């Protein structure tokens, strides 16, 4: 039976292109910037999925939906915390400079207030929240959020000028090491599905990232995309994409 709910669409925030699709390069800085763009698109789809479904909720959906919103907020904030606490300082250390990504940190501050208001509102109201009020709060920070998500990958590309034969910067290694520090069991089961299940890879950029990013293969892919989301499954029904990497019909 065909779904009676609309198909997810990339609105109100548009997706961002990967640097690799734009410059055709395969150097480490282009790779890392592209991985960041793909991650940012997962945040964008998460935002859009909340925005599109909030006005459609039935009372019975609301508590699960609040949990989904909390997971999205936590995922975005954890990503930026990892940047500020590990990624950016280690880039500075490798380059022998300071403040190379200060602009990105200031951009984080531009939308943190709105995200904090969103979380506080949902904590206060719980299942009694107003969809209209939630949308107003999201509208207050969506432009600053999108501007940052679009600006950061090119900033990673620009770091290549600090990497020299005498002092190479292992940008991929730095990013991988910093990212691993963020994952624990609580994060994996209660937050990470909002990241993996908001990734459309089959059609995006002609499928060039399908089964390439996220870099999960075999059993690990099955565990993260299908088994882990069985925990809190009512929360994850609001995601925008299937485990196979295609957009899906909205849950409500």
From TrEMBL:
Q: Where is the composition biased (Polar residues)?
A: 1-25
* InterPro entries in the cross-refs: Dimeric_xanthone_biosynth (IPR053206), Hemerythrin-like (IPR012312)
Q: Which Pfam families match?
A: Hemerythrin
Gene3D superfamilies, alphabetized:
nmb1532 protein domain like
- Membrane-traversing stretches: none
Task: Please give the residue ranges the record annotates as the region Disordered.
Answer: 1-29
What positions does the domain Hemerythrin-like occupy?
Answer: 36-152
Q: What is this protein called?
A: Hemerythrin-like domain-containing protein
Q: Which organism does this sequence originate in?
A: Stachybotrys elegans
